[in-house]
Design goal:
heterodimer, A: alpha+beta, Alpha-Beta Plaits, three-stranded mixed sheet, 10 helices, elongated, disordered N terminus, B: Formate dehydrogenase/DMSO reductase fold, two-stranded antiparallel ribbon, 17 helices, about 65% helix, about 0% strand
């Protein structure tokens, strides 16, 4: 493979051949992805694979999520445990039903944070309140740092992060891949309870291989014989197989480049090492100093001619 | 008689406590009451914001739009100091004060808007910064600009006032002015670099909005268009303010300075319009402007307002008519503000069914903070020498007994 400019620069900056080697290795992992300035998933990245041909819509994953994450149960009547329609400040995970008008080929979809390989929310976040774990690749939120600006809500292409609009101490709510359970060697709550293995947990590389295996076994069963999340929007760590078009179940049509790569490339370049602002500042000060002398002379003359204190 | 603005002179003979001033203070007080409600109850009950429209008018109008209007110190300063438009120096004090108040009001409201303001202290810890976030650029750069170079640019009228107050202050004032003058080019340089950075980054904020921003606005050139719009908005705001104050308080108008400002504003608007159309044509989205949608309507509204402003600016320069000039700048300001507001709210379409309209409380807070800035301006121009006037006004003011005796002391050049 050819090295991108970024990778070569990295090699120069850190002065190690290993950085170049890692770049080459991670580039090879996501086969079919053109080498870019922006990162690939870490080699040990965790992932979920959701296959809606297997989902029966039992919502076990939803109640498991509520139980483990202790999100508020939104129950209008006693006995009904969860009635949220959308991801919101009390819902990190939800199962939705897509029912076309002709009544044929309905499909479920599980929605939660996609844990993008190059997340837009993390790219926008000021003080790294949202951060991507360098090993597992989980995107987590930090209450000690978050300012509550809600830029993540503006940036996320999947409309995932939600804000607690009530109260004086609001938080950002989104799936954090049950990081405490993972640390204890357990699976995320949702994948651990799924009775039909519609959503499974594993390493990202393994799950992509697994998804492709399923596509090979049943060609034509899945929409476009495609795994959503392998390359879409720079890749995600939640992968989807669907029998209906992805757009129908709320997965947007995204280009292979990530949001930060697509939209912030130039911002990043202009501000790299603050070189452009520094040069601009130096040249402006030089011009102003030249004009400043003439202005001071003019001020002194005005002071003499009018007898008034000069005004800056 | 041809009037020339030669010196900054306070507004005399007008009482501070006028009815408009009291009204504006009342609006501001009401806003502060509502702010305490928002702090306790949260953003949900106080505002119309929701998860789809996570940013409301406090951010998108008061900060992202109105600081464009407050870019006068930046735009006119660049013209005066970098492009040697010498006759613009006399309006710099007005520009600096309007800018400072616009920024202060916008930044204060930003503090009300964010959900967890107590965490903002991380701004002082550079190792916490996410250097590639446009929002970080805004969050660091904007308060730095308002609190260091812009505040320092506003010192001279204040030191003038101190100088006039008591003779024993004078040595300190002189000393501080000497220090200030030594570092002035470096401060002024910063006062032009920082707004260029954060006014463009305000546009860059909407880039990550991606498909949510309608294609007529979503462009990689959004930062450049934003900072360019800030440039002509700054000019229009200062020229409009000068004209309005002169007409209301019956102060002489320097038509030469205003014509100069008109020409620069017209040039900025003209190039901006060409750039905007070139961008839309090259991206191949011009067909969207001819669809019967609200977005096409907004696009043409912006374009026509600015084109009309451009024509009126040139026409009023030819006729040298202050009233027409004022209307031209008003038109330019509305058009430019609409352009800066559209991609954030009106042409921002998160998903079907999403709806946002500010609640009355939200509107009151937004309007109240603007009212406070205007009230502060009205108060300060009566106390400090901000607004430009001919020299004869200074002398006639000085000659008047009592009213200007304190300020007359300024004239003693020691």
């Amino acid at each position: 493979m050819t090295l991108s400019r970024r990778e070569i620069l990295q090699g120069i900056t850190f002065g190690t051949a290993s950085a170049v080697a890692t770049g080459a290795a991670s580039g090879a992992v996501a086969s079919g992805v053109a080498p870019s300035e922006y990162p690939d998933a870490p080699p040990a990245a965790v992932a979920m694979l959701y296959d809606n041909t297997r989902c029966v819509g039992c919502q076990s994953c939803v109640s498991a999520c509520v139980e483990v994450n202790k999100t508020l149960v939104n129950a209008p009547l006693p006995g009904i445990h969860h009635t949220n329609q959308e991801l919101n400040a009390t819902t990190k995970n939800i199962i939705k039903l897509y029912k076309p008008a002709d009544g044929k080929s309905y499909a479920y979809v599980k929605q939660q944070c996609m844990h993008c390989v190059d997340p837009a929310c993390v790219a926008g976040c000021m003080f790294k309140g949202l951060q991507k774990d360098p090993v597992k690749g989980i995107v987590t939120w930090n209450s000690k740092v978050c300012v509550g600006c809600r830029y993540c809500e503006i940036a996320c292409p999947y409309h995932v992060p939600k804000f607690q609009w009530q109260g004086f101490n609001p938080k950002i709510v989104k799936c954090e891949f049950c990081k405490e359970r993972l640390a204890r060697g357990l699976q995320p709550a949702c994948t651990s309870v799924c009775p039909t293995k519609a959503v499974v947990f594993g390493k990202r590389t393994e799950l992509i291989a697994e998804a492709k295996q399923r596509i090979r076994e049943y060609p034509g069963k899945y929409y476009q014989d495609r795994v959503f999340g392998e390359i879409e929007g720079g890749g995600t760590q939640v992968l989807y197989l669907s029998k209906v078009p992805f757009e129908k179940i709320g997965l947007p049509d995204l280009p292979p480049e990530s949001m930060p790569e697509k939209y912030l490339k130039w911002q990043k370049r202009v501000y790299s090492y603050l070189a452009v602002p520094t040069v601009l500042y130096a040249s402006m000060v030089a011009v102003i100093r030249g004009n400043w002398k003439a202005h001071q002379k003019h001020m002194i003359e005005a002071e003499k001619s009018t007898g008034l204190r000069s005004q800056l | 008689m041809i009037d020339q603005w030669e010196r900054n002179v306070p507004v005399y003979d007008v009482p501070i406590w006028t009815r408009p001033f009291i009204g504006l203070c009342g609006l501001g007080g009401l806003a502060i009451l509502f702010v305490s409600y928002r702090e306790l109850a949260g953003l949900g009950p106080a505002s119309g914001m929701n998860d789809a429209y996570a940013w409301g008018i406090w951010k998108t109008f008061n900060t992202m739009t109105l600081t464009g209007l407050g870019s006068g110190a930046f735009a006119i300063g660049v013209a005066a100091w970098l492009f040697k438009k010498k006759n613009l120096h006399v309006v710099m004090r007005t520009a600096c004060l309007t800018s400072f108040l616009a920024y202060l009001s916008g930044l204060a409201l930003l503090g009300v808007d964010v959900g967890r303001p107590w965490n903002f202290y991380w701004v002082f810890t550079p190792w916490r910064w996410n250097l590639h976030s446009p929002l970080l650029e805004v969050a660091v750069c904007m308060p730095t600009y308002a609190m260091i170079p812009l505040l320092l640019e506003n010192f001279p009228p204040f030191t003038d006032w101190l100088y006039s107050q008591k003779p024993q202050y004078r040595p300190y004032v002189k000393k501080s002015e000497e220090i200030m003058i030594r570092f002035y080019p470096f401060i002024v340089g910063l006062a032009y670099l920082l707004p260029a950075m954060h006014q463009s980054s305000l546009g860059a904020l909407m880039l990550l909005g991606g498909d949510r921003v309608y294609p007529l606005w979503q462009t990689p050139w959004l930062p450049i268009l934003y900072v360019w719009a800030a440039a002509f908005l700054g000019f229009s705001c200062v020229a409009g303010t000068l004209l309005f104050c002169s007409l209301v308080w019956k102060r002489p108008i320097d038509r030469d300075v205003l014509v100069e400002m008109n020409r620069i504003t017209a040039g900025l608007i003209g190039t901006w319009l060409m750039f905007r159309f070139a961008d839309i044509l090259f991206r191949g989205v011009i067909n969207l402007a001819f669809k019967f949608t609200i977005y096409a309507g907004l696009f043409w509204m912006e374009t026509l307002l600015l084109a009309l402003a451009l024509w009126m600016l040139l026409d009023s320069s030819r006729l040298r008519d202050p009233r027409l000039m004022f209307h031209a700048h008003l038109m330019a300001a509305v058009g430019g503000m609409l352009y800066r507001f559209d991609p954030t709210t009106l042409a921002f379409q998160p998903k079907p069914g999403a709806f946002y309209f500010p609640t009355p409380i939200e509107l009151f807070i937004s309007v109240g903070f603007v009212a406070l800035a205007i009230a502060a301006f009205m108060f300060l121009v009566k106390v400090l020498a901000i607004l430009p006037a001919p020299m004869r006004l200074w002398y006639s003011m000085e000659a008047r007994e009592n009213k200007s005796q304190r300020l007359a002391a300024i004239t003693a050049a020691d």
